[in-house]
């Protein structure tokens, strides 16, 4: 029994040593790179068809800042982040800025952006005006993404 346990531990050591090699991407990324490099994001982008009402709602974000915190490994991010990109593309709304920040499994990034925004769940979409947080949408919207992002604006 002890020999089997030792063998099991010895066999698992190489897996533990490789764990860092398979860590998900973490850091800032462009929408185009995200769609080009990650198939699930591209697939959801292609299949999502926003309504004309949602496209019109996105104009309420004009001049606002948007921070998108997500995981390339996260199924909710696979679904919601491409929706946002498509809504932005089709509405052509002019944002003051947009930052897409991918986080690791620990929900952190090297620049500390996720921690500065108290990230708990992915994805998290934060709408700001002049640095002040106005809206936060966490994981999945209660209505449509466009409705939740523009609620109260």
UniProtKB/TrEMBL annotation:
Keyword Signal attributed: yes
Domain of life: Bacteria
CDD domains the UniProt entry points to: TRX_family
Annotated ranges, domain Thioredoxin: 11-153
Keywords in alphabetical order: Signal
Entries under InterPro entries matching the protein: Thioredoxin-like_sf, Thioredoxin_domain
Signal sequence region: 1-19
Record-annotated membrane-spanning stretches: none
Protein name: Thioredoxin family protein
Species of the source: Pseudoalteromonas marina
């Amino acid at each position: 029994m002890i020999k089997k346990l030792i063998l099991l531990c010895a066999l698992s050591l190489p897996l533990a040593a490789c764990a860092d090699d398979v860590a998900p991407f973490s850091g800032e990324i462009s929408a185009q790179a995200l769609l080009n490099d990650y198939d699930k994001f591209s697939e959801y982008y292609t299949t999502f068809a926003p309504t004309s009402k949602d496209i019109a709602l996105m104009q309420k974000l004009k001049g606002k800042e948007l921070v998108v915190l997500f995981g390339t490994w996260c199924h909710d991010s696979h679904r919601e982040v491409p929706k946002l990109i498509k809504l932005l593309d089709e509405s052509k709304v002019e944002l003051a800025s947009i930052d897409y920040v991918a986080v690791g499994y620990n929900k952190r990034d090297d620049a500390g952006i996720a921690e500065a925004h108290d990230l708990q769940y992915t994805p998290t979409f934060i709408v700001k005006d002049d640095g002040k947080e106005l809206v936060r949408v966490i994981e999945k919207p209660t209505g449509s993404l466009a409705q939740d992002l523009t609620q109260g604006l």
